[in-house]
Amino acid sequence: MSIMKLTATTAVIALTATTSFARDNVQVAGSSTVLPYASIVAEAFGENFEFPTPVVESGGSSAGLKRFCEGVGENTIDIANASRAIRPAEVEACAAAGVTDIVEVRIGYDGIVFASQLDGPAYTAFEPADIFNALAPKVVVDGELVDNPYTMWSDFNADLPSEEILAFIPGTKHGTREVFEEQVVAAGCEATGAFEAMIESGMSEDDAEDACLAVRTDGRSVDIDGDYTETLARIDANANGIGVFGLAFYENNTDKLKVATMSGVEPTTESISTGEYPVSRPLYFYIKAAHIGVIPGLKEFAEFFVSNEIAGPSGPLSSYGLVADPALGETQAMVAAEETM
Amino acid sequence: MTDATANPIPGTASKGKSLLEQDDRTKRRNAAEKRFRAYGIAAISIGLLFLLALLWAIINNGIPAFTQTFINLEVELAEENLDPNGNRSLEDIRKVSTFGYNPLIGAALIAETADIETEVSDGDLTKILSASAAAVVRNYVIENPDQIGETVEFRLLASSRVDGYLKGRVQREDLARDRNLDAAHLDLIDEMVTRGSTERVFNWDFILGADASESRPEQAGIGVSMLGSFFMMIVVLFAALPIGVAASIYLEEFAPQNKFTDLIEVNISNLAAVPSIVFGILGLAVFIQFAHLPQSAPLVGGLTLTLMTLPTIVISTRASLKAVPPSIRDAALGVGASKMQSVFHHVLPLAMPGILTGTIIGLAQALGETAPLLLIGMVGYIASNYPDGVASGFLDPNSAMPAQIYEWAKRADPAYYERAWGGIIVLLLFLLTMNIIAIILRRRFERRW
């Protein structure tokens, strides 16, 4: 019976799959901000080495680190990309699953920019205080901490256009959100005096810090859980909207977006590397040290990633929008020595 | 009845109106019918309008992906760069990475454009070429080490911005704030097009090629993920068809009617309506975390899609088995066939066209499915290597056509957006072919009683 034969064939295929499987390619997952860089490196790695091209998946920093911390073994990933540093809780989760030796590699810096429709209102200059006033649930008006009454940008800063407030910010699973909170919202919280007002109202310092990072929930601040392309689509549809993007994404879409300065500085790779532009963050990847020597090409891939040809100021990552790390030499030495955290 | 004739409706017969003249009630009824027809036509027109808009958008956005701009360039394969020891040993040649080839390509471009007046600096010239150029030249040299020292003509991909300019996607004014290309480059390209060294031709690599990284959309193709889809469909066909048909035959022909089989039937119908992402979670838990099958492998993708396709196949198989008249079974049993002989010799062959149609439609559904693949790691920069053979086709990481389209639509470079639409055209062609085959099978072999 032919049907019987088919079933038998399937069973044989399934059986050989479980018994004789040995992975020979590097598997990477994590931040969608790091994905473009990782894919560029993976492609060049496949071209220049005898190893197969590594597989790079996205999904966000937190999702990637969660998969990274699932355990040691061929069906777990070797490298997690992250647009923020690993958290102590994640290190503990990793250790609980047997992932004890982790190599942290910083590949460079990425700028976070605010951009709006090219032909839209003139959002060309922001201060952290503006973003806080626009997005916080409670702001300071005449020295009092009140529920955010602002509906227009011009309500709190006459220099900004009189347009309805509408901002598309990264969702909480993105590493970009954390940087946005720490470097823009928290800075704005202090600058507007909201932080002091909260402490005066009897909050503890920790609670006030947390309260500073909250965003209003009346629909004027929209969390985007997808990628920057989703933010771009929302900006395309809303002329008065502003969106949060990575510098590299903006540089690839200058025909649709115009970028705003932050504290008077325009975001460019130069202004970010000198530290003038205030909103930037380091990008990382994490290597499972237990997989080095087991998965062929893993260490070579990591070394290739941080080599001067790739991650240096004139390499392909830099021309895509990464801000090269001035301390790349130390990172190279660390990867070569497999120095764990 | 008799009452009605005895008491005619007041005001109708008594007024003695002509039958040719419609009364109010008939007019209203006729008007209601006309309105209903108009609603129907409006509904169909709106549907057609949406279909046309969709097709127009797909074709308009996707067709440019099938052509690509190439630049013909004579590159001198200088010995001092590529084989400094001069011994032509493959090992030494391999040591020169793609970065070592960039100066050669830069020099070739300078020579090519030497007699064209341009504001582009020599160092910026390479921006008109794809980053893949160095890899193309390097692969050629590794395959033909004897050509080192010669000057060879290469056909290299132009960068995605140059390609976009020739396709009308990139406008001059857009480049003012773009650091990947300047307007001066475009003047250069215009001149090279008139000379014939730059041309836009049909791009087989889009249909047959592998995925590329974010920095070189011009190189990306859907071929490898097409193979991924192919291997997945093989798994679905060889797993779902036998299981589905065996289950349906048992349930339809042999199983006793009791509460337990009723429960199974209800569950099969419910499974057909379960959102596909649920099967993705199930696949992740069962095949990857429990059975330890490799991540991102078409085998796992196929098995997950099998779970999703099974209810479709079971339901359509049972419907076509039911459609075979009982007289066929009775006749077979009457001449002394066993129950099994009657099923396999008579009922199953007659039900085959229906079963195949259901299977093909189930496969088409599985071919276009993305959601479950998200969870088993088939979305990302994955479809970069061709499988080495059948086993590697099933087990090595790969993507699938709809997953590849989704991935392209997410990427930053607008050139990838165009490729996503192009990928949709390829996928639609496959779905159309499969559905046409299903229709032909049904028309050709279906029997009616």
Description:
The complex is a heterodimer of chains A (341) and B (449). Chain A is of the alpha/beta class and 341 residues long. Chain A has two domains: 21-110 and 282-336, D-Maltodextrin-Binding Protein, domain 2, CATH 3.40.190.10; 111-280, 3-Layer(aba) Sandwich (D-Maltodextrin-Binding Protein, domain 2), CATH 3.40.190. Chain A contains 15 helices and 14 strands. Chain A has helices at residues 2-19, 35-48, 61-68, 88-96, 128-135, 175-191, 194-200, 205-212, 228-237, 247-252, 269-273, 298-305, 308-311, 316-320, 328-336; strands at residues 27-30, 55-57, 79-82, 102-117, 125-126, 138-141, 144-147, 167-170, 221-224, 242-246, 257-259, 261-262, 280-288, 323-324. Chain B has 449 residues and is mostly helical. Chain B has two domains: 65-202, no CATH class; 223-445, MetI-like (MetI-like fold). Chain B is 63% helix and 5% strand. Chain B has 19 helices and four strands. Chain B has helices at 2-6, 24-62, 79-82, 90-95, 98-112, 133-143, 160-166, 183-195, 204-208, 223-254, 259-271, 276-290, 298-323, 326-334, 339-367, 371-375, 390-395, 401-410, 414-445; strands at 67-76, 151-157, 198-202, 380-381. Chain B has a three-stranded antiparallel β-sheet. The mean pLDDT of chain B is 88. Strand 2 (55-57) of chain A pairs antiparallel with strand 4 (380-381) of chain B.
Category by helix and strand content of chain B: mainly alpha
Distance between termini of chain B? 41 Å
Structural class of chain A: alpha/beta
Q: In one word, what is the shape of chain B?
A: flat
- According to DSSP, the number of beta strands of chain B is 4
List the uncertain runs of chain B. Answer: none
Distance between the termini of chain A: 59 Å
Number of domains of chain B: 2
* CATH level 1 name of the largest domain in chain B: Mainly Alpha
Round the mean pLDDT of chain B to the nearest integer and report it. Answer: 88
Main sheet makeup of chain A: 10 strands, mixed
Largest sheet of chain B: 3 strands, antiparallel
